[in-house]
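Re: that backbone. C-alpha cells:
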C-alpha cells in the first residue's frame, strides 16, 4: 500500500466549513486565485475534451475546470469530498466521480485524458504516491495530452542538521519565524525527483516553476508534463519565482471577491505562445 503522507489532513476530520476557501485567502478568494494565478499557467492547454482532476476537495477548482471540457473525472480517496462535490455540482452531466485508494487510476480508461490537473492536493503526499500516479499517467493521457501538477519541493531543503532538530524545537523556531512553516508539504519530494519519475515512466517535463508558499523557501513546484512521444517539446527550463506570494498579495489588493484583471504588472500573464511570463522569475537548469 502506498503511503498517503499528510493527505490524511483532508479526511473527514478536517473542518471544511469554508469549503477550502481558506487556502485562497492570500489571493482574496478562489476566483482571484484561479483567474490571476492558475488559469494563466494552463490556458495554453485548454479547452480539453476530457480532464482528470486529482484531489478536488470540495470542488474549488472543479467549478472552473468543468467550463473547459466536455467531460471531467474527479478522483479523491476521501468519500466525504466526493459527496460534497456531488452536492455542489448536482447532476452536471460532464462530471464523473471516482473514489480511489490514494494512488490508483484503474477506473480511468487508457488513452482517454487530454488534461490532468491537481492543485493544493499532491503537495501533501509522499514521493511513493507521486511516483505511483506518474507510472499511470502515460497510459491515461491521449497522445498529445498534458498534465499540470502542484507538488512539494520541500525535500530540496532537507539536511542532516535540520533532520536532527527535535520536532518541539523546530516548532518553537518556526513560531519565532526563524524557520519557515512547512505547511504539511511532503518532506521527501522535490522538483528533481518529479523530473526523474517522468523519465522513468514515459513522460517528458515541459517546464517547472518553483514557488514560495507563505515563506521564503521555494517549497512548492508546478510541473507541466506530457507523454514522451507527444508533439510537445521537452525542456529542462526551471523558473524560480521567489515573489509568488508577493504576487498573491498584489492580486488580493486588486480583487473584490470576484474575477479580477490587471492587478499588477508582476502577476503572471500569458505570452504570445500561450505560456506564462513571470516578471520576477529567475530561470535555471
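Recovered sequence:
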Amino acid at each position: 500500500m502506498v503511503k498517503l503522507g499528510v493527505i490524511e489532513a483532508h479526511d473527514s476530520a478536517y473542518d471544511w466549513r469554508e469549503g477550502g476557501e481558506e487556502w485562497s485567502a492570500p489571493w482574496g478568494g478562489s476566483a482571484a486565485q484561479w483567474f490571476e494565478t492558475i488559469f494563466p499557467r494552463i490556458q495554453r492547454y485548454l479547452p480539453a475534451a476530457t480532464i482528470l482532476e486529482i484531489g478536488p476537495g470540495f470542488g474549488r477548482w472543479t467549478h472552473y475546470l468543468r467550463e473547459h471540457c466536455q467531460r471531467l473525472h474527479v478522483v479523491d480517496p476521501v468519500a466525504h469530498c466526493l459527496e460534497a462535490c456531488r452536492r455542489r455540482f448536482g447532476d452536471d452531466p460532464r462530471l464523473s466521480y471516482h473514489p480511489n485508494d490514494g494512488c490508483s487510476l484503474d477506473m480511468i480508461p487508457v488513452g482517454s485524458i487530454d488534461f490532468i490537473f491537481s492543485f493544493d492536493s499532491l503537495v501533501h503526499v509522499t514521493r511513493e504516491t507521486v511516483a505511483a500516479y506518474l507510472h499511470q499517467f502515460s497510459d491515461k493521457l491521449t497522445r498529445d495530452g498534458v498534465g499540470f501538477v502542484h507538488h512539494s519541493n520541500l525535500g530540496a531543503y532537507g539536511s542532516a542538521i535540520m533532520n536532527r532538530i527535535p520536532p518541539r524545537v523546530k516548532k518553537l523556531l518556526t513560531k519565532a519565524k526563524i524557520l519557515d512553516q512547512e505547511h504539511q508539504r511532503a518532506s521527501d519530494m522535490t522538483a528533481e525527483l518529479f523530473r526523474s519519475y517522468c523519465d522513468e515512466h514515459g513522460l517528458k517535463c515541459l517546464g517547472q516553476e518553483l514557488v514560495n508558499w507563505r515563506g521564503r523557501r521555494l517549497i512548492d513546484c508546478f510541473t507541466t508534463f506530457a507523454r514522451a512521444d507527444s508533439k510537445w517539446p521537452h525542456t529542462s527550463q526551471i523558473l524560480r519565482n521567489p515573489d509568488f506570494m508577493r504576487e498573491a498579495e498584489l492580486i488580493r489588493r486588486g480583487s473584490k471577491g470576484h474575477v479580477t484583471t490587471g492587478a499588477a504588472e508582476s502577476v503572471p500573464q500569458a505570452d504570445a505562445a500561450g505560456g506564462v511570463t513571470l516578471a520576477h522569475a529567475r530561470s535555471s537548469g
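Residues 165 and 171 are 10 Å apart (CA to CA). The helical segments are 30-42, 62-65, 79-89, 127-140, 160-164, 167-175, 191-200, 244-254.
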